[in-house]
Design brief:
The chain is mainly α. It contains 17 helices and no strands. α9 packs antiparallel against α16 and α10 packs parallel to α12. About 3% of the residues have low confidence.
Length: 422
């Protein structure tokens, strides 16, 4: 079969496997994005609240039913669906009605939380806008599932494209696609939240880097466009990726100059694009009055504004940082799969020191995102998931010599079409 057929087959198998969990993937933030999407599709506040609460409560009931069916003591009890659904709807509607009566009726979202907290989601229109056609065509449950499948499958395809642009053999490029699906990238991308789209857009920016390093100007446009799209999805990620790409471009250029080699055009151009994206994000966020880092800090330390603001948040934040990373490292030592995968990814990235620098930079945004939210219990470490891009792309690069050793060398006089990008 042709490579594109294998790519589509892998994506199709992944999509079919996701039918096992159509419901129960949502997190507490999912309802905010769904409400935003329903509002963009033209529904009024009450109709939006009705559809969103139905989705949330159906998911809770589904999880409760599945959990009871395998409980060694309670499996024979009556189906809890009706009871869980009724209780959930009563709690959600009580909260929403109270806030609506208090005048919290602005914006596109439904007031499930205090207005300061909901403001965080109001400035993220990219993901809800992406959901609109899916929700309009298939409804909330199947629409969110279908959108997640498209996003997750696209991420794997982008991994394949990145590796093929680097002239990695097809089997290894398919391996990278498969790794994306089976490692936490795929699981997290299937959750109806922004992380899947963040992963895909970050990979799109990396693909732009790979194309630019091969001398294709379209790569610079793709990298810049991906950063612009990231701003609409989650502007903090656009800032982090811009800063990291700028730093990578500068370090690579300095390193090459010290070795007496010109940095070329692509490396400083990519660095300047990253720097421009970072500065543009800061300026545009201020002009649009987006929530500041102070708001984010108070949200973290007050439990989503459920408590009074902290008078001296920064000392508390840095103390929490120290505690968090100490506990995080202890858990990594207990289950070192992530650390081993990162090590293998770095090793592979070092085989392509130029592109590898940009790959490490993109993966570093996962650590920056996690550092901005040092919460050890936040939904399966989804904040750091971008760091998994390092092993997803780096491991195929690490295995490349093994595969190439089995591939015949082109005859003398022939031009190899698989000359790797350094």
């Amino acid at each position: 079969m042709r490579p594109r057929t294998w790519v589509l087959l892998l994506a199709a198998v992944f999509a079919l496997l996701q039918l096992a969990n159509v419901t129960g993937r949502d997190t507490p933030d999912t309802k905010n994005y769904l409400a935003y999407a329903l509002s963009l599709s033209g529904r009024d506040k009450r109709a939006t609240a009705e559809a969103t609460i139905d989705y949330v409560c159906d998911g809770k009931a589904s999880l409760a039913r599945r959990a009871q069916s395998v409980h060694v003591v309670h499996f024979h009890r009556p189906d809890p669906t009706a009871r869980v659904t009724a209780g959930c709807r009563e709690r959600e509607w009580r909260t929403v009605e109270t806030r609506l009566r208090a005048g919290q009726t602005g914006g596109h979202t439904v007031p499930f939380m205090p207005e300061r907290f909901m403001r965080i989601f109001e400035v993220r229109p990219g993901y809800p806008a992406f959901l609109v056609p899916f929700v309009a065509a298939f409804g909330a449950t199947w629409g969110l599932w279908a959108a997640s499948v498209v996003i997750a499958a696209a991420g794997g395809v982008l991994v394949f494209l990145v590796l093929r642009t680097l002239s990695v053999p097809v089997p290894l490029a398919l391996t990278g696609q498969g790794l994306y699906y089976v490692l936490p990238c795929g699981t997290t991308a299937m959750r109806p939240m922004t992380e899947g789209l963040l992963l895909a857009l970050t990979l799109s920016a990396l693909w732009g880097c790979a194309l630019a390093l091969r001398g294709r100007r379209a790569g610079l446009a793709l990298a810049g466009g991906s950063l612009a799209a990231l701003f609409t999805v989650k502007h903090s990620q656009a800032l982090f990726l811009g800063v990291c790409l700028a730093a990578a471009g500068a370090l690579i250029a300095v390193r090459r100059r010290r070795r007496g080699r010109p940095p070329g055009r692509a490396v400083p151009a990519l660095g300047l694009i990253g720097l421009g994206a970072a500065l543009g994000t800061v300026v545009l966020a201020r002009l649009l009055h987006y929530p500041s880092e102070s708001d984010s800090l108070q949200d973290l330390l007050t439990g989503h504004f459920a408590r009074p603001d902290r008078e001296h948040p920064w000392p508390e934040f840095w103390r929490l940082q120290g505690n968090f990373w100490g506990e995080w490292l202890r858990r990594q030592a207990w289950q070192p799969l992530f650390a081993a995968a990162l090590g293998a990814g770095v090793w592979g990235a070092l085989r392509r020191p130029v592109f590898g620098g940009f790959l490490v930079a993109a993966a570093a945004t996962g650590f920056l995102t996690q550092a901005a939210h040092p919460d050890i219990n936040i939904w399966g470490e989804r904040l750091i998931v971008l760091a998994w891009l390092l092993p997803v792309v780096g491991i195929p690069l690490l295995l490349e010599p093994v595969v190439r050793a089995r591939v015949p060398v082109p005859a003398q006089g022939q031009v190899s079409r698989t000359e790797p990008v350094r």
